[in-house]
């Protein structure tokens, strides 16, 4: 017993070794640069020497020696390890334990310190420094220094007054914005606002069954879009145009992408991928890239010129099917191309393989009779395929491309709510047209700003395919288009059900006069259209609240009409179709941006009626075939 007790108090042989090793570990941790190396390995490792050097924030040329020194200092006590086979560095368990201990010490010191610390939006805890508020006011808000100092002093006083135990970056920003509002500095407050979504909304998104079932990508994209929409409406879009949107005077489809991407792009595939290099993998990769460079639709020409395209077209469409949030893909195919039979069969295979097609065909019938193909086209349509029939290059929305010298981009997502103008005009047609003309100038100004914003951000590298093929020639290839929605409902409200078609032309001439005048001054191509616009049912809801349901909800299908709508059943009524075609042709002749014509059918519609409808219309109008009551 005495011997055992004596042994306990005898000096261990390795006593001098242990303190030395611990000392080396603490010495290694006593450096922000070495902590950065460990944290990079902990979150991203294993890493190569050059990867680790870059992620740890060392300059690739001027700090090579410094990086090597710090890495050796971590290697000696065994905090990092080099795998000699892969030549990659990784953090050891001892290294993980060490940075965990550092974090615990930092947090404990904060709790026991009388100083105030801030949990920043950069995932760090820092001592509160009022100078950072002043620097942010000057940098973010472009505020004069003397005013920034006064706002900072008032904010600092409130922070110390409240003595909050959990001071965060967002909370400081809220206090700054409160001081700005109380001082009458609303413009600066707008610049300093923090964008995001309320905690409650995010929690609901994460607990909503439909949202969760849609997947993680859907949740992330939805949250991201909310941020960009707020950014647009509070900081980017001109205040009067933002107010027009919020009050229902206009609608903007794909609002989040307004300053980032055009709405429709027309491209020739051979300008992007040489025909000799086209394979399934390269085609899928290119399509998945370009579908994120437009907010609404990408129309690809030249697909029918690819050898053996029908052999792998269905597989290609299935492989890149439904990238959530991406634009719709339209393949532009002349009916007289050699591969047309194979393309139609391949597309039919695709639509039978998916629930909801995210790609469609734009069939050009110029110099070709459609009768030979109407059976397979009607088969595709009954399988829920997306088919547009045209005699000129166009998209499924009705937007047309008159640029025959390469790629082009169209900006057409802003639609003017014509019924709202009609309700406010109290039956006065001249006043209605005057209000339309007055609303267009601020709208065109906003569209011109959007055009510049997209060109700038594309040049900076956001949309590489767009930059390579379009932005270089933007003067002639990027068009601004103002869309007019609800013409039928507006004319009915002002003039009654039997309004003369010439009044539609009169309204279009008024709009054309305004854009021609402004286009002549700026040199920019500005066009008028009556094309399909997503989400315009929102306008009906806003107008119903403002003007009363009795006035608004008696409209057909509870939505405002896009362009011209033709029911398949109307095509078999003698004389009626001729009148519709004649009026549509007159309108299309003065609409430089395009006229959306919809040939609608119901699930119960016989296939023979669909065949008759597309054969009768194909010689006269561009049109998209659509299932009745499809959501808009």
Explain this structure.
- With 632 residues, this protein is of the alpha/beta class.
- It has 29 helices and 19 strands.
- The strands form three sheets. Strands 6, 7, 8, 9, 10, 11, 12, 13, 14, 15, 16, 17, 18 and 19 form a 14-stranded mixed β-sheet that branches.
- β18 (597-601), α29 (607-617) and β19 form a beta-alpha-beta unit.
- The radius of gyration is 32 Å and the shape is globular.
Q: Counting H and I runs of at least 4 residues, what is the number of helices?
A: 29
User: How far apart, in Å, are the first and last alpha carbons?
Assistant: 90 Å
Name the beta content range.
5-15%
The radius of gyration is 32 Å
Low-confidence residue ranges: 1-17
Secondary structural class: alpha/beta
Main sheet makeup: 14 strands, mixed
Q: What's the shape? A: globular
State the helical fraction: 40-55%
DSSP E strands, number: 19
What is the mean predicted local confidence, pLDDT? 85
Question: What is the structure about, briefly put?
Answer:
This protein is α/β, with parallel strands linked by helices. Helix content is 53%, strand content 13%. The chain contains 29 helices and 19 strands.
Question: What tags apply to this protein structure?
Answer:
632 residues; alpha/beta; 3-stranded antiparallel sheet; 29 helices; 19 strands; globular; disordered N terminus
List the helices and strands and how they pair.
Blueprint: H1 2-9, H2 17-29, H3 32-44, E1 47-48, H4 49-55, H5 64-75, E2 80-83, E3 88-91, H6 93-112, E4 117-119, E5 125-127, H7 130-141, H8 145-162, H9 169-182, H10 186-192, H11 199-207, H12 209-213, H13 216-236, H14 239-247, E6 250-252, E7 264-268, H15 269-272, H16 280-290, E8 297-301, H17 309-319, E9 328-334, H18 340-353, E10 359-364, H19 374-382, E11 387-390, E12 408-411, E13 414-417, H20 418-424, H21 429-459, H22 464-469, H23 474-477, E14 478-485, H24 487-495, H25 501-522, E15 526-530, H26 537-547, H27 549-552, E16 564-567, H28 576-590, E17 594-595, E18 597-601, H29 607-617, E19 623-627
Parallel strand pairs: 7-8, 8-9, 9-10, 10-11, 12-14, 13-14, 14-15, 15-17, 16-18, 18-19
Antiparallel strand pairs: 1-3, 2-3, 4-5, 6-13, 7-12, 11-19
Helix pairs in contact: 3-5, 7-8, 7-10, 8-9, 9-10, 16-17, 17-18, 18-19, 19-29, 20-21, 20-24, 21-25, 25-28
